[in-house]
């Protein structure tokens, strides 16, 4: 069994890497979802939102198959010598990214929608090309959305259990995160340790939600 | 010359216009709401794309498959709601287009800032501006992007009477000072007469009449005279004035209707 510090470090590393990748993936996706007028963009929107309603074990089960040694998706990687991503940290990151995707996309999509067409039109009439306008107008105006997306993605990744257990298996030092450690401790009747971690996560979750609410209050403040 | 021809549908609305105006002075697009003034202005800016062609001072901006995107057109556009960037202060807004035009805080910057009375606002956040101040900043921002054509979409319409009185003199100064052609959208006949050198009367997506405003009346200061008269009279008297000043009876009737539908102003 690895120490609590190792498990905590692994959990934070997983959440950090996942959040970073999520912001990179979710930003263009949310931008496209916010601006597309095609009805079928909602099909993509529904696929992105699926992890909210899907049992984590279902998602984890499919990911286990998709990232396992017999998957066609793994064929190109196997040519490079990677046999499987199941039960690895990389597999865990992929699972976490997919599972937390809606929590990053939704706030960003709302933020981009709230920005609307007008500031971008104004930027275009002021010689800003599409990329320029996106980086210097849309992103700064959507900043609260980025903060919410990052906080939610991070917190949601810290708190996940089902997907992480299915795809990771809880291997100490490789894929064992805090939420799984709690389950293991309870099974081993080590209630004191379980209390410690569970209490810590409770405080963490409260701090996250409180900071989100305070942030929302600050950005929603009416202008004088 | 500014020569344009647009013909196309936009939802349930059809725009069908063709215009050719000198590349100087103020061209007022005048007509009731829904007559296509803003759509025409957006087509000139490239913000809306309808089939047609457009050339501005010998440069083709649109023709068949050729369509210059708005950020490549040397235009300044003043939106009805100012559309300032909320994440930048006044100075940042004013310099947004200017920097992209390869210019900075030079003598021309100081001149425009002075013309619009913006010095005391430069460091202020956009959220702390009044409606009139916002509109002045929006006008300054557009002017400072070094445009060859200034497009203004009812810059005074969203302001109450007091704010309007505050901003109107700046717009008037600008129309006299202008070194570039201006297209000015309004449904306020007083504003049109006060600012315009010519007026394109629009109705249901068409230009129904072109009226020369400057020199239409016998006095030396013709526009001031017409503006005064328009402010004083209404109804049939206005129609009579317009006919006397060279407009056709159709124009006079439309102007009166527009005046009535927009309520007693000025």
How would you portray this structure in words?
The complex is a heterodimer of chains A (224) and B (266). Chain A is mainly α. Helix content of chain A is 77%, strand content 0%. Chain A has one domain: MetI-like (MetI-like fold, Orthogonal Bundle), CATH 1.10.3720. Chain A has helices at 4-35, 41-53, 56-67, 75-79, 89-115, 118-125, 130-141, 143-159, 162-168, 178-187, 191-219. In chain A, 37% of the residues are buried. Chain B has helices at 37-45, 90-100, 107-115, 131-144, 161-177, 189-195, 222-232, 235-244, 249-261, and strands spanning 2-10, 13-21, 26-30, 52-56, 59-63, 66-67, 75-78, 149-153, 182-186, 198-203, 206-212. In chain B, α4 (131-144) packs parallel to α5 and α6 packs antiparallel against α7. Residues 215-220 of chain B have low confidence and may be disordered. Helices cover 38% and strands 23% of the residues of chain B. Chain B is built from nine helices and eleven strands. Chain B is an alpha/beta fold and 266 residues long. Chain B folds into two domains: 2-74 and 163-261, 3-Layer(aba) Sandwich (Rossmann fold), CATH 3.40.50.300; 81-147, no CATH class. The chains are: A mainly alpha (224), B alpha/beta (266).
Distance between the termini of chain B: 33 Å
Percent of residues in beta strands of chain A: under 5%
Helix and strand element order of chain B: EEEHEEEEHHHEHEHEEHHH
- How would you classify the helix and strand content of chain B by structural class? alpha/beta
General form of chain A: globular
Number of domains of chain B: 2
The shape of chain B, in one word, is globular
Helix coverage percent of chain B: 25-40%
Got a strand count of chain B?
A: 11
Count of runs of 4 or more consecutive helical residues of chain A: 11
Reported by name, the CATH topology of the largest domain in chain B is Rossmann fold
CATH architecture of the largest domain in chain B: 3-Layer(aba) Sandwich
CATH class term of the largest domain in chain B: Alpha Beta
For this structure, the CATH topology of chain A is MetI-like fold
In helices, the fraction of residues of chain A equals over 70%
Which range does the strand content of chain B fall in? 15-25%
- Count up the domains of chain A: 1
Task: Show the largest interface.
Answer: A-B, 21 and 26 residues
Q: Based on the structure given, which CATH architecture of chain A is correct? A: Orthogonal Bundle
């Amino acid at each position: 069994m690895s120490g609590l510090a190792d498990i905590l470090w692994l959990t934070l590393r997983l959440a950090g890497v996942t959040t970073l990748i999520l912001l990179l993936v979710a930003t263009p996706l949310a931008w496209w979802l916010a601006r597309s007028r095609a009805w079928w963009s909602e099909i993509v929107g529904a696929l992105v939102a699926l992890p909210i309603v899907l049992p984590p074990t279902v998602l984890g089960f499919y990911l286990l198959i998709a990232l396992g040694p017999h998957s066609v998706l793994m064929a190109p990687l196997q040519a490079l010598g990677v046999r499987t991503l199941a039960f690895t940290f990389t597999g865990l990151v992929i699972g976490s990214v997919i599972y937390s995707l809606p929590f990053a996309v939704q706030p960003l999509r709302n933020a981009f929608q709230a920005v609307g067409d007008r500031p971008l039109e104004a930027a275009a009439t002021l010689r800003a090309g599409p990329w320029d306008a996106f980086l210097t107008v849309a992103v700064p105006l959507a900043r609260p959305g980025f903060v919410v997306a990052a906080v939610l993605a991070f917190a949601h990744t810290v708190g996940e259990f089902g997907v992480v257990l299915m795809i990771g298996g809880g291997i100490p030092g490789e894929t064992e995160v805090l939420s799984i450690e709690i389950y293991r401790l309870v099974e081993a009747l080590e209630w004191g340790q379980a209390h410690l971690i569970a209490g810590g996560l409770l405080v963490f979750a409260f701090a996250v939600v409180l900071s989100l609410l305070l942030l929302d209050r600050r950005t929603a403040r009416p202008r004088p | 010359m500014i020569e344009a021809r647009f013909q196309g549908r936009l939802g349930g609305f059809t725009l069908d216009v063709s215009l050719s105006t000198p590349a100087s002075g103020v061209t007022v697009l005048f007509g009731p709401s829904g007559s296509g003034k803003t759509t025409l202005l957006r087509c000139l800016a490239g913000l809306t794309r309808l089939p047609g062609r457009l050339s501005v001072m010998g440069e083709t901006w649109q023709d068949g498959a050729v369509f210059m995107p708005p950020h490549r057109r040397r235009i300044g556009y003043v939106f009805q709601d100012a559309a300032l960037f909320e994440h930048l202060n006044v100075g940042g807004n004013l310099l947004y287009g200017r920097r992209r035009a390869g210019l900075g805080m030079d003598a021309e910057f100081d001149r425009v800032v002075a013309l619009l009375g913006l010095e005391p606002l430069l460091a202020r956040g956009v959220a702390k501006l009044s409606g009139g101040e916002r509109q002045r900043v929006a006008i300054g921002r557009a002017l400072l992007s070094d445009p060859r054509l200034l497009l203004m979409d009812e810059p005074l319409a969203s302001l109450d009477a007091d704010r309007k009185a505050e901003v109107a003199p700046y717009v008037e100064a600008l129309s006299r000072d202008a070194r570039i052609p201006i297209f000015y959208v309004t449904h306020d006949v007083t504003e049109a007469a006060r600012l315009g050198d010519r007026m394109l009367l629009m109705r249901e997506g068409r230009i129904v009449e072109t009226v020369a405003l400057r020199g239409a009346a016998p006095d030396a200061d013709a526009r001031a005279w017409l503006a005064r008269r328009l402010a004083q009279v209404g109804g049939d008297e206005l129609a009579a004035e317009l006919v006397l000043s060279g407009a056709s009876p159709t124009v006079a009737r439309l102007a009166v209707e527009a005046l009535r539908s927009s309520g007693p102003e000025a």
